[in-house]
Amino acid sequence: MSHDWVAFAKQLRSIAQTGQTYTDNKYELERYRQLEVLTNQMFAVLGDVPIARVENFIIPDAGYATPKVDVRGAVFEQGRVLLVREIKDGRWTLPGGWADVNEAPSSCVLREIIEESGHRASNPRLAMLKDRSLHPYTPVSPDHIYKLFYLCNHEGGEFVSNNETDAADFFELDALPPLSEGRTLAEDIHQCWEFLQSGAPGIYSD
C-alpha cells in the first residue's frame, strides 16, 4: 500500500513541475507551487523523515517532468564482478551514476567506471533497461528512474581515491558483499552475468 502512495505522490509532483513550466497564470503558478510543497510533505510522512531531508534529497528540476536516467557498468573478470563501495552508506554497487547532458550513456558508463573504481573498461553493450519503481530497490525514490546496465570489457587498473567511493574490488557471484540496494540489487549482477554467458551481443546505444 505504501508503494501505491509513493506512486501517487510522484504523479502529483510531476503535475506540479509541469504545471509550473507551462502556466502563464500567476494564481495557477502559486497553486502548483503549493502542490509541490504538499508532495514533499507526503514523501516526508511516507518515509518518516523530516521534510527538510526530503527537500535536500530531491534533485531540483524544471520543465516537463520525465524519468531520470541512471547508468551502471558490469565488468566481469574470471567469473568475478567489479564493485565499488559507496562512501555515503558503506555498501557496494556496480559503478555508475546519473547520465550527464551532452554525453552518450555508453560514454558516461565508461567514465563512471574509471572515476569510481580506477579500472579502465571498454566496449560497453547495453544488456538491460529497468524501471526502478518496478523492482525492490530501497529506499523508494521520489524520482521516476530508468536504470541502464552495460556489460563492459575489463582493461586493467587499480583503485584511485575519489569523493564518491572508498574501495573497489572483484567479488565471486556467490559471495557478494552487502549491496547498496538503492543502486544495485544482487539480481542485477546475476542477470548481467547471465546475459554475458548467453553470448548475446547487447544493444547499440550511443
Structure description:
With 206 residues, the chain is an alpha+beta fold. 37% of the residues lie in helices and 27% in strands. Strands 1, 2, 3, 4, 5, 6 and 7 form a seven-stranded mixed beta sheet that branches. A hairpin with a 5-residue loop joins strand 2 and strand 3.
Helix content: 25-40%
- How large, in whole angstroms, is the Cα Rg? 19 Å
Beta-strand residue fraction: 25-35%
Shape: elongated
Terminal Cα span: 38 Å
Instruction: Count every helix, treating DSSP H or I runs of 4 or more residues as helices.
Output: 5
Unreliable segments of 5+ consecutive residues:
none
Determine the mean pLDDT: 89
Biggest sheet, in brief? 7 strands, mixed
The computed structural class is: alpha+beta
Please outline what is shown here.
The chain has 206 residues and is an alpha+beta fold. Strands 1, 2, 3, 4, 5, 6 and 7 form a seven-stranded mixed sheet that branches. Helix 1 runs antiparallel to helix 2 (26-47) and helix 2 packs across helix 3.
Topology:
Layout: H1 2-22, H2 26-47, H3 51-57, E1 68-77, E2 80-86, E3 92-93, E4 96-98, H4 105-117, E5 119-131, E6 145-157, E7 165-172, H5 186-198
Parallel strand pairs: 1-6
Antiparallel strand pairs: 1-2, 1-4, 2-3, 2-7, 5-6
Helix pairs in contact: 1-2, 2-3
